[in-house]
Specification:
By secondary structure, the protein is an alpha+beta fold. The chain has helices at residues 17-36, 61-69, 87-105; strands spanning 2-9, 40-45, 51-57, 77-84. It is elongated and about 70 Å long. The chain is 45% helix and 27% strand. It has one domain (2-105): Alpha-Beta Plaits, CATH 3.30.70. 7% of the residues are buried. A four-stranded antiparallel β-sheet has the order 2-3-1-4, with helices on one face. It comes from Desulfosporosinus nitroreducens. Residues 1-85 form the Muconolactone isomerase domain. InterPro entries: Dimeric_a/b-barrel (IPR011008), MLI_dom (IPR026029).
């Protein structure tokens, strides 16, 4: 299943600045590791903002929740999750709708 996850840091963690930076490094290293495992298809930071987005390819929303909630910065993020369908599935859906319309005209 594909998911677009957008996260933004809404509050700074109540830790010294050095520790915050260490937590952020740990979080982005996890993202890179998940990408190497094939669980993340794409990722990036928002320019000029404290946040980013990731496209996940996981088995379920439960797996997604487990993975993202393991991030040490997770409690301080505002997160939006959007389920996605592949372009191939979207194409098949449109083709089916076209075929159904043509069949109903006959």
């Amino acid at each position: 299943m594909l998911f677009l996850v957008k996260s933004e840091l809404t509050q700074l963690p109540p830790f010294p600045p050095q520790q915050v930076k260490e937590i952020m490094v740990e979080g982005w290293e996890k993202v890179i590791n998940y990408q190497k495992q094939g669980k993340i298809l794409a990722q990036g930071m928002f320019a000029g903002r404290k946040g980013g987005c990731v496209i996940w390819d996981v088995e379920s929303v439960e797996e997604l929740h487990i993975l993202i909630s393991q991030s040490p910065i997770f409690p301080f993020l505002e997160t939006e999750i959007t389920p996605l369908i592949s372009i191939e599935n979207a194409l098949e859906s449109v083709k089916s709708a076209l075929e159904a319309k043509q069949t109903s005209k006959e």
